[in-house]
């Protein structure tokens, strides 16, 4: 019995190691993010549209709608830089006036990449299925603490 338990533990560790196999930080390894995604967050409806990988990058637009009106937009990119990936974005009011200065971006460097997860510093993409993903974003609250906001998206 003790031997069987040891074998099961080794098999379990082996399966977990395979599930968490690190992938090369190439844009093609996150192609599953591409598509039109819809969800809810911040008390409203969200829409995020990601392009297919090309030329070492992907681009996206994000829109938050509250009470039938756009609250804000984002333009996002993920690109290959120095043998890794970086996610960068800019925020815009509903009239396209930017939050960041002209040359400023909000940057999220890649920490870890597996078959079903892209972990950037402050933002994580998690593939649930080909038609569902979660995005977790670290957002500072009024107290200066970090809250993790979860976006559950369904692909259209």
Characterization of the model:
This protein has 156 residues and is mostly beta strands. The protein has one domain (2-155): Lipocalin (Beta Barrel). Helix content is 12%, strand content 55%. It is built from one helix and ten strands, in the order H-E-E-E-E-E-E-E-E-E-E. Strand 1 (35-41) and strand 2 form a beta hairpin. It starts with a helix and ends with a strand.
Labels describing this entry:
single chain; 156 residues; mainly beta; Lipocalin; ten-stranded antiparallel barrel; 1 helix
Mean pLDDT value: 90
User: DSSP helix count?
Assistant: 1
User: Structural class, please?
Assistant: mainly beta
Low-confidence stretches at least 5 residues in length (pLDDT < 50)? 2-17
Shape: globular
CATH architecture term: Beta Barrel
Briefly, what CATH class? Mainly Beta
Number of strands: 10
Strand order of the largest sheet: 1-2-3-4-5-6-7-8-9-10
In sequence order, what are the helices and strands, one letter per element? HEEEEEEEEEE
CATH fold annotation? Lipocalin
Termini separation comes to 50 Å
The count of domains is: 1
Query: How many strands, which pairing sense, and closed or not: the largest β-sheet?
Result: 10 strands, antiparallel, barrel
Protein name: DUF6265 family protein
Pfam families: DUF6265 (PF19780)
InterPro entries: DUF6265
Keywords: Signal
Helix and strand layout, with pairings?
Blueprint: H1 2-19, E1 35-41, E2 44-50, E3 57-66, E4 69-81, E5 84-93, E6 106-114, E7 117-120, E8 123-129, E9 132-140, E10 146-155
Antiparallel strand pairs: 1-2, 1-10, 2-3, 3-4, 4-5, 5-6, 6-7, 7-8, 8-9, 9-10
């Amino acid at each position: 019995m003790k031997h069987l338990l040891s074998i099961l533990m080794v098999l379990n560790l082996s399966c977990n190691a395979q599930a968490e196999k690190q992938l090369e930080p190439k844009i093609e390894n996150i192609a599953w993010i591409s598509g039109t995604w819809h969800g809810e967050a911040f008390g409203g409806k969200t829409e995020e549209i990601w392009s297919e990988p090309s030329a070492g990058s992907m681009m996206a637009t994000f829109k938050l709608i509250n009470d039938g009106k756009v609250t804000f937009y984002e333009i996002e990119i993920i690109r290959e830089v120095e043998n890794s990936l970086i996610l960068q974005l800019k925020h815009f009011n509903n009239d396209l006036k930017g939050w960041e200065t002209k040359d400023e971006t909000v940057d999220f460097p890649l920490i870890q990449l597996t078959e079903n997860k892209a972990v950037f510093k402050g933002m994580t993409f998690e593939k649930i299925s080909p038609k569902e993903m979660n995005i977790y974003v670290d957002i500072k609250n009024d107290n200066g603490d970090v809250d993790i906001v979860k976006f559950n998206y369904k692909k259209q």
